[in-house]
Amino acid sequence: MPKTLDALIIGAGFSGLYQLHALRDRLGLKVEVLEAAEGVGGTWYWNRYPGARCDSESHSYCYAFSAELIREWEFSERYPEQPEIMRYLNHVADRFDLKRDIRFNTRVTGARYDAEENLWHVTTEAGETVSATWLITAVGCLSTTNTPDMPGLASFKGRTVHTGEWPHEGLEFLRGQRVGQIGTGSTGIQAAPVIAEHAAHLTVFQRTPNYSVPARNAPLSEEFRRHVRENFDEIREVMHSNTNGHAFRITERSVFDVSEAEREAIYEAAWEKGGLQFRANFSDILTDLKANQTAAEFVKRKIREIVKDPATAALLSDIDHPYAAKRPPIDSFYFETFNRPNVSLVDVRSNPIESITPDGLRLRDGTEHKLDIIVFATGFDAMTGPLLRLNIEGRDGIALRDAWAAGPRSYLGLQVAGFPNLFTVTGPGSPSVLCNMPVAIEQHVEWITDCIAHLRANGIARIEPAPEAVEDWVGQVNAAADETLLPQASSSWYLGANVPGKPRVFMPYAGGMARYRGICEDVAARGYAGFALSP
Ligand code: NA7
After folding, report:
1. Do 334 and 281 fall into the same domain?
2. Which residues form the signal peptide (predicted)?
3. In sequence order, what are the beta bridge partners of 179?
4. Which residues contact 253 (CB under 8 A, 6 or more apart)?
5. CA of 183 to the centre of ligand 1 (A)
6. What digits encode the pLDDT tens for the residues 382-403?
7. Which of 177, 327, 349, 356 is 20 to 30 Å apart from 16, CA to CA?
């Protein structure tokens, strides 16, 4: 007899942990989490690559729902490193006694909605079935790795590793090796400086050059920690009321409200301060191309100042998308790394990788690079990948993969028409990836929890978005993107452009977290407007 639960959650990262706590401990539901890994952490469990660190500042990269949790946990650095985030999430899981309801080493391979029983039947790799009324995916947005299908890959005699599936053995295997790194997104930019410290030689294969601003990571002073402890309510208020969920506000002034000299001084100070705040000094950086160019030119100039070899500097700064139109990385000595004698940069935009060979890789012009290890920092099948690989089947046997063949369509990023009682935390159409993630996650989890409480209290067995509401939301997601420069980065994962064959649809809601929160609250206040509710 398959097990039947009130709610089943897939994934035990930031989202799944809080969703379990909220449904089990606040609503008293019978809930279980299925998790493929052998521990909690989700994306952070897998992403153990060299230099893996969060780009959100640690005092904002945490749950804000529990005053006790805030009081008892302190991160040690401005940006938390992967092992410290893992310690934090394990602390949360232990503190709220979550692990007893998480089944580890359990990969979901299918989920099917049965209309007659009004149940989701979820199957696992081991062939087990678990059934539940409410199915909540908490599978993250950047958890399905994308390894390009390069000819000859299987023939490589050395070792290949994707940053998002980094082995648990650490970094020692890089020692003294000739390492090739493919990819210069946020991950590659974090990884290269640390790989270079271990490898005999690091060759970075760059297709699209990228802007990056120094993170200026450092240990947190006792004074700053006290400030956070004593002022967390105000910090949370900032995080909840701005567009990006970070603990800083975007200054309400145009790039052109100040003189050129003032602007230069502002950029210079922001560069020295470091971090994602770099784009927060003006309100029009992401909406006005001319304004954006001032920031872009500033960063390009910095790259050329830092990198000593003029040809390498030219390649690194030959960036043609607007600043921050691709997810803007922050780094710890990325550009400086190219001044090391054991690091070289190879442009694979003009001269693409043609094949992997037994001894390394070959470019189109015939140049061979001999390598012992290839690191794929090639990103993820973002947002839709983690959901599609669950093989979800909704009402009338419709597969999510077919429903989204032309790109994802959701209502609020939280539900999909034809898939009753399925909630997608941080799904496509939500603002999560453009936001400090835990802020978006808390909002989604709390909204879903309140929704399920409302349904139960009112004897409603089924919730599903109306097709018109989905149509309208897709329109709002497109309109919000079009108000920004974000769609102009043609190779961005926001557009699915990094995965060959993936539909080019701008996936996240770019209207800002605060606006989104208001919309979700309004929908709930109007009795879940746009959703079909049935008893
Ligand atoms: P990204 O940002 O998608 O970056 C992937 C990088 O890999 C990017 O530079 C790609 O170049 C490059 N890439 C992908 N496929 C290839 C092939 N076939 N040949 C050469 N280069 C390739 O992933 P990240 O892991 O860095 O970051 C993902 C998010 O994680 C990040 O934005 C944060 O939100 C956290 P391209 O730009 O496609 O030309």
Report:
1. yes
2. none
3. 202, 373
4. 282, 283
5. 5
6. 999 999 999 999 999 999 999 9
7. 327
